[in-house]
Amino acid sequence: MHHTSDNPRRPSVLHIFKIYYPDLFGGTLTVIRDICASLKDAFASAVLVCSQSPEKREIVVDDVPVERVRSFGNLLSLPAAPTYPWRLWRKIAAHDLLALHAPFPLADLVFAFGFGRKRPLVVHWHADIVTHAGLRWFVEPLMRRTLQRAKAIVVSDHVLVDNTPLLREFEDKCHVVPFGIDTSGYDWPKIEPHHVNDRGRLVLACGRLVPYKGFDVLVRAAAAHNFEVWIIGEGTERPRLVQLIEELGLAERVRLLGSVNDCERIKLMCLADVFVMPSVTNAETFGLVQLEAMAAGRPVVNTALDTAVPRVARHGMEAITVPPGDAEMLGEAIDMLIRDPERRRRMGLAARNRALTRYSATAFKQGMETVYRDAVAAPCEQRSASAERPQAPGWLDSVRIAATLAWSDMRHRYVRSLLGPFWMSLQMAIVVAVLGSVIGQMSNADVLSRLPMLALSMTAWTFLNSVVLDATTALQNSASLIRDRALPPVIFLLQCTFRQGLFALHNACVPLVLWLILSPHDLSHALAALPGLLLFVVCTFALSLVLGAMATRYRDLKPIIESTLMLAFLASPVIWSSDMINHRSTVMRLNPLTHLFAVWREPLVGGQVDPVSIVYVLVALVLLVIASMLTLVHLRKAAFWI
Amino acid sequence: MVSISLHNVGLDYPLYGAYDYSLKRRLLGHLIRDPGEMRIIRAVDNVTIEAETGARIGLAGPNGSGKSTLLRLIAGVYPPSSGSIAVRGNVVPLLGLNAGVNLDFVAEDNIALLLRISGRKPTRAMIEEIWAFTELEARMQRVPLRMFSSGMLMRVLFATATAFPADILLLDEWLSVVDENFAEKAQERLLNLVSQAAIVIIASHDQPLLRRTCTRIINLDHGRIASTVTVTSPAAHALELREKRA
């Protein structure tokens, strides 16, 4: 990172967001740009974002260096940029302050894993997640962790803190810094704030063409009245809006202007008679464009959202506020202003006055500078102390507790005996040696070249076997923690997988040594086997979850599971392989374990995985996941069973 | 911000006998049309409790009247069979001190593990502070808990469990420590913890204790609220003052 500074080193700020100019225009980006520009004397800014364009990775926008991480499209409103977390982690160290523009769960993920703990973090809360609210259970713990470690949370209006439960938890950290606007650009000598267009019927709206902006409501409102609507902006909703306009026969009066540069936009704002912000969801938290319209001295029609929108331009003073999504009321409000030039003039003057006094760029600059300076200056201890507050256990805490318990089990095994660490591996080595020689007697194949795979298969089987067996007793063994400390039972089933995973990693030294000695080791094969191995582990966990819960409820299942595992071991190609026996018997083909082993064993020896195996494993996985979901529901009752 | 709200909560507690744990029995029972009735007791029946910040609630009642079960319901161990429970704030249930202890581990590992289970990251300073409270020798930190006498073990567990303040504190019986020298100190610490918590719910047989510490006493009988008594003079502060003067 190069700093283009002449004065003694300014603290550097890294702005973290999903997208930036020139890929998109919009309110959040304007805010980031304004922060960078207005604080340029005090802070050196840099931006890290994603971009779908394959062009230059490092660009400079308005004197600010911007690194763009390649993204391969959008997944659930998030850029699919697999390398973003890595790049973020790499860049954290080079900056004095991190400014995360939320919501951006991809970055929350990085912070949730504890990266960048040493750098102060300021969260700019632009909006809550509104789309894909079904994934909230997953994202919220991550966001909470980010907010926990943040030194300050910046919101544009206090109403956001009141209406967002997540923010209320961190009320003491929230700083209200209303966005500011530099009104000098709007001082057109020939267009006085009270100047009113003669025709008096031009309605302007501005924003990305996305569903929550509610432009379809505006178009429908126009159908019943006689005003003209110009909409500035570009986006995915365009085809639908065009279709709607045609269906309603409004092509004469409603125009989609597309993207327009800043200068042109200001001119249009000054030309318009009424500015409309018809947004329909709380994703619209402030409405920076309505502030621009106010600076241009325009009366506003906005919607009664639970956000700052109706508080920036207030009903009856600078705006008329209507219920969101109500085309009829919206149309009437606009029409009322159109018909009443005097009222337009009065509201326009009030709007301009409010923009100048309440939302000045200077106040915004000062507010931001104070927050940033305090964040950089605050000592580290204070930060950790404030992050100390424990929260209600989310899934993240469950995983962490399970990992802690598993790690302590692992340590315990090391402590218990002197030979401890090596005993397990030694046992594994002996088993492999004996089995290897026996198999060598049975078939005339080259035993030595088979040994690494035999050892690895044994390790994997031991893992699966012990996870399932452990799970059958895990809940009863942890009865006191479940009943007296109210820990979720799923922790202890997860603990089995983690614990046996650690043991398996330990045992893996046997196959690793054999692999290094006996086979032409090709690292790319090992990498190709990783997805299959991951499937194997996930399936094992899901299986243990289901069987563990059932064996706790029905105690007579445990012996059945034990004997079934023994049978499965003999019927699956663990110690023998498919080419050693009569070509692909029916039992072997139907046995899901055959395929569960095949998906990682085949790539490891450089072969192709049979598509049948992949389908088989995926179907098994889906069934197991469904069964796990059902189990999780019933697991709430586990405290009765133990 | 902290609140507990139980609305017409009921809990049917299934009593599993030896046969109820058998899948074979259950399946066969279906085949021979003998659904083998499972005994269910109504452990908590139509209980409504509202508690805001500052509430000190005592649960009184004879054995088996549902005190502990009610605490576990609030802690989220059991799902309610009917009614609704809404808890806001971080709940720390101190229902049994032994939970999660591994006697084979040395004392400091146990303390660290217990802290982690309750969602905190143990630091050296925290462990030292807890250890200082137990008044045990520093070298005992490296000794497995198995070697501890029951009194010493109690000290360690008590010190760990009460080390951090909680929003909502659930106590099943006042944590009493038998060791005479330690008892007074433990008492003071627990009172301090109670005074810091936003909401405290104590289940106890000890009526004088409940009168001393609570603002409201709920008498339970067979899972139902028999009566609610509001304690007029919240004597907790007076007690605290007395402790401080002493």
UniProtKB/TrEMBL annotation, chain A:
Domain named ABC-2 type transporter transmembrane: residues: 404-599
Stored InterPro entries: ABC2_TM, Glyco_trans_1, Glyco_trans_4-like_N
One GO CC term on file: membrane
Gene3D superfamilies: Glycogen Phosphorylase B (3.40.50.2000)
TM spans (from-to): 418-439, 451-469, 523-547, 559-576, 614-635
Subcellular location: Membrane
Signal peptide region: none
Occurrences of domain Glycosyl transferase family (ranges): 192-354
Main location per the UniProt record: membrane
Domain Glycosyltransferase subfamily 4-like N-terminal, chain residue ranges per copy: 26-180
CDD domains, A to Z: GT4_WfcD-like
Protein origin, superkingdom: Bacteria
Its membrane topology: Multi-pass membrane protein
GO molecular function: ABC-type transporter activity; glycosyltransferase activity
Pfam families xref list: ABC2_membrane, Glyco_trans_4_4, Glycos_transf_1
Protein name: Glycosyl transferase
Protein's organism: Bradyrhizobium nanningense
UniProtKB/TrEMBL annotation, chain B:
Keywords noted in UniProt: ATP-binding, Nucleotide-binding, Transport
Domain of life: Bacteria
Signal sequence interval, chain numbering: none
Record bears the keyword Cytoplasm: no
Residues of the ABC transporter domain: 23-243
Coiled coil feature spans: none
Cited Pfam families: ABC_tran
Keyword Nucleotide-binding: yes
InterPro entries attached to this UniProt entry: AAA+_ATPase (IPR003593), ABC_transporter-like_ATP-bd (IPR003439), ABC_transporter-like_CS (IPR017871), ABC_transpr_TagH-like (IPR015860), Bact_Polysacc_Export_ATP-bd (IPR050683), P-loop_NTPase (IPR027417)
A single Gene Ontology CC term: membrane
Record-annotated membrane-spanning stretches: none
Gene Ontology MF: a single term: ATP binding
Function: Involved in beta-(1-->2)glucan export. Transmembrane domains (TMD) form a pore in the inner membrane and the ATP-binding domain (NBD) is responsible for energy generation.
Recorded family membership: Belongs to the ABC transporter superfamily.
Protein's recorded name: Sugar ABC transporter ATP-binding protein
Organism: Bradyrhizobium nanningense
